[in-house]
């Protein structure tokens, strides 16, 4: 009986040491990687979205951080996506309503540039100073922003922190949306 008791005590001691060692090792791994207890979305809400550089369809390079001070809508879409097509007119209307205070970066996940070109012919109003169309050919931006399905949009405040993520289509141009954007701009409803 004494032998069994000693064996049980030894097993319990090793188990406790093993659990303690594993927890200690995991704790140091979290510190090394800088990981914390909140998700990528929460990080974007607290710290801002990661900056990126892209080229629009005309080949002009820009950086997201150059748009600080404006409301930015990152809209992930594709020409074959029915709901994406459905929301384009109201999205463009909203951007144009705010005459420069709102910037749209429409990021296409299309496989072929020709598909985007055909789409653009159907929506000539998608051209303008505050609208940038980006072809995410390698889908690196979609990966970076963890886009799961299309359309998906992220509304960034003037400080480039995520204020709203929208998965699916919405009517962008209505009384509530205009009031929401005005509140982000610090303006009273018009």
UniProtKB/TrEMBL annotation:
Residues 43-186 form the Thioredoxin domain. SUPFAM superfamilies: Thioredoxin-like. InterPro entries: AhpC/TSA (IPR000866), Thioredoxin-like_sf (IPR036249), Thioredoxin_domain (IPR013766), Thioredoxin_ResA/DsbE_sf (IPR050553). GO terms for molecular function: antioxidant activity; oxidoreductase activity. Pfam families: AhpC-TSA. This is Thiol:disulfide interchange protein. It comes from Bdellovibrio bacteriovorus.
